[in-house]
## 1
Amino acid sequence: MKQTKYLFIFLLTILSATSCKDSKHASKETDQTVTEVSFLQKIKELFPTAEITALEKSDHFAEVYQMILKEPLDHSNPAAGSFDHYVYLSHVDYNKPTVIVTEGYSAKQRTNELSKILKSNQVIVEYRFYGKSRPEPMPWKYLTNDQAVEDYHGLVTKLKSLYPKKWISTGISKGGETVLIYKSKYPEDIDVAVPYVAPLINGREDARTEEHINSVGTEECRAKVTKFQRLLLSNRKAVLAEIEKHATEKKMGFTKVSQEEALEYAALEFPFSFWQWGGKCEDIPGESASAEELFKYVDKIVGISFYSDKTYHDLLPSYYQHMLELGYYGFDTTPVKDLIKIVFEPTNLRFAPKDVEMTYNPEYIKNVRDYVENKGNHILYINGEYDTWGACAPTPKPNVDALKMVLKGGSHKTRIKHFSQEDQKKIYDKLQSWLGSDVELSPIPQPEESVSK
């Protein structure tokens, strides 16, 4: 009887211990479930003062957010205040690479070509003082490339606590130029840089763009471009009537730049834009073209809205930067000098803010070029042969581990997908060697084509 009693107590003890152990194990699992931190919680902890809004998911991303950061106006003096800085963060996996897109102008949520290739996380940063990140009134003295670079550096430094794998920076045109500036200032922030159609410009008016315009394509096509410029201004009255009609239909104002001045600047701009955007010689209207046809073509290539009040206002930050640090291109009046009535001395200063100090610093971009051409490893340059900005593209020295790809006949719209299969393999092989074998590269997607000047 005693033995039965002791056996019962022994079994009860074992069952109790097992139950207690299972209970503790279940409790531990429950605690893990409760304490698991979501991606949204993590970014809220990283950016406690940011306004964060969920956006619709697209492509391979699991979560997409718009973040409005309280960015310092002056990173060396927080007391100067802050501005609302728009950033778009798309998450897929903490163990994937991360692509940061340094927009040169305003920004919106979209999937970058490299993000599709790498199936990566993505960060799109609107350039300070552009688009929705523009404070009013505009504190011009804080619109410098160095301040913008500090925006990126601070953001990347924080996000690396979430994304410890490879980082790739990319941007198009002015955004690509920003990629190179950032790389020159903080080379360790980024593993690979991919600037698309990015110039590094010599001076406020880089003569290399005019040399390009006067040598690219065939002599016959260049002559046709010049003839079209002259047709625009020879038919001034009728073309101006078309501009007026168009402006009325589209409700465009021309109080900052008159319609007649806009016509002359558009005529002077035409060769640059024609080659930049890959114009086709066979499409250029000839002598028999009507005023409507002449207007529609210049509007297609240059865009008369480029001189409207809205665009004038939107691009003030751009012209400020170009006239201060970045440099720009000039205008050759030679082909139409006898037809000019207003713009006798054309200059891009015409579109820059008035009553603001702008002393051009020729050393700024020179220093960036010296770095990327002589020390800029792991940079993939994507350029188009006919693109006018290609005349200002940097060329890495042979000893630098970089790759410059120029698409034959390509324009400012050139992307990786436009290259031949053989050249795409060359690009992929180079990216793979820089990123490592554990990073998977997907087949070339169809990229978005929309870019700004």
## 2
Amino acid sequence: MIIHDFSTENSILNQFLSELRDHSIQKDTMRFRRNIERIGEIMSYELSKTINYTNEIVTTPLGKKEMSLSSDSLVLCSILRAGLPLHQGVLNYFDKAENAFVSAYRHHKDNQDEFDVIIKYLASPDISDKTVVLIDPMLATGRTLEDVYKVLKTNGFPKQLHIVSVIGSQEGVDHIKTIFPENTHLWIAAIDDTLNSRGYIIPGLGDAGDLSYGQKL
């Protein structure tokens, strides 16, 4: 796996990430969503440098100009519901991409620490021979991405895979390295050291879905 860890370099992305982590600032849900969206935009610009391009002639009011334009067919796949703000950030830059959505959530039976990943919904185009971007803001254990990838492959096998996340755990990153093809790109704003007993990233930022859209039952 090819890992692009944005925390290893100084950039304005760190300002947005610090506001996502800050327990007082993150109470502003609109700002929280927008910061995730802006991180998605920054990552998408960097991701765009790795896809394929072809030369095309563009006609202006005064003449013609040859330009290098993206030739890949992209499918953006978001994991509901936490993935929606990040999905929008990526879509802002890849506005011609097709889109897929997967409903996946943790089920803690009897409120125990152990959990199963429940997938109840998939809306996706054919992904055969396309570039798929899997979008999930929190890469905790990596099991959700693993199960989503298995379900998504029922609609074809992609040419190239990218994963876009905001924060991951080292354990989760190590896990998906064993699941996804070697040439998969992981774009991530930060990798934290540990998980707690319930599989949440420490220090992380909390529950991205709840912070974006309010608490669920």
## 3
Amino acid sequence: MEYTEDDFLMISGIQHFKFCRRQWALIHIEQQWAENQHTVIGELMHKKVHDPYLREKRKGIIIARALPVSSRKMGISGECDVVEFHKCEDGVKLYGHRGLYSIYPVEYKKGKPKITDEDRLQLAAQAMCLEEMFCTEIPKGAIFYGDTRRRESVEITKELKEEVQSMFQEMHEYYRRKYTPKVKNSKKCRSCSLKEICLPKLGRSLSVKSYISQMLKEEEK
């Protein structure tokens, strides 16, 4: 099965989904959003990296920024912060360039490396898109963290790829049903930019749109 472009989901959504399925649904299904200091810092950092007109070439490495990628098999699309093409003896051909190149995606994140896998899953999803687009295999990539100013090497394992595929299948099903899951209040809710929209402490099964509609009706009475 292949998805059409109309059905594509955002690659970056896998981070929201891994953190909290309800957060993902509020943003991507119900189109709710709110800023906090974490989202603002992250947005500023990506603006510095994302210049689609900037290409660098140095010592056998071509560096592309804000590279659009997609996968019809998984039904996803987005942009890679940075993709490095390293000249090698066994790689892929690039239009307008001599020789063969291996592909190395680099994702930029604010803060420090996480214990959880959401950053690695997003990088793996990008790598899987690049593999499909260039008909190659990408064994590794990297995540650059703003606090440490260092790259963390990430192996694109079979287990990571299987989790990426499973999560996007679930996300497509939620999106098709327009389903917003309920959530249990937990420590991670405190750092969520949507906590005032989500209202986790109420434990409501209503969607945010339904909740707001109900509140407006009560005010009109």
